Amino acid sequence: QRGNARFWMGKAQRPEKSAFxxxxxxxxxxxxxAVLGCSDSRVPVEIxxxxxxxxxxxxxxxxxxxxxxxxxxxQFAIHHLKVKxxxxxxxxxxxxxxxxxxxxxxxxxxxADLAKALLGIKAGLDExxxxxxxxxxxxxxxxxxxxxxxx
Length: 151
Fold this sequence. Notes:
Strand content: 5-15%
Largest sheet: 3 strands, parallel
Order of helices and strands: HHEHEHEHHHHH
Strand order of the largest sheet: 2-1-3
Number of strands: 3
Shape: globular
Structural class: mainly alpha
């Protein structure tokens, strides 16, 4: 939380490791937190949380969707790296969340893997409730929050 506060206040420290410390990371890592985040280039997790090399175990995928690969990556962090905290991080204006709200016919026209991912995200959204929200920005926030909770 403190790292994110520094980032938003424009006081990020961007912890840098010395050459010796970076070399030590080649052999082992001890991240304290695993983060399932979006692959969107506007939300690089290490920068947003003002963390350095080896501090976080980050899994990034469009829409921060949980599937076999992302789940296995998080399980690796928990079982092999002994990470104790897992964070699912969504963000406003997520293109994958927006695309998942398209109708199924449109989604099925996407490449097969993308369509499968979008349908997985769509399954976790309460579309009836989202349609009741008139303000587009509020609807976007609610969709993102709903997706994070579903993961």
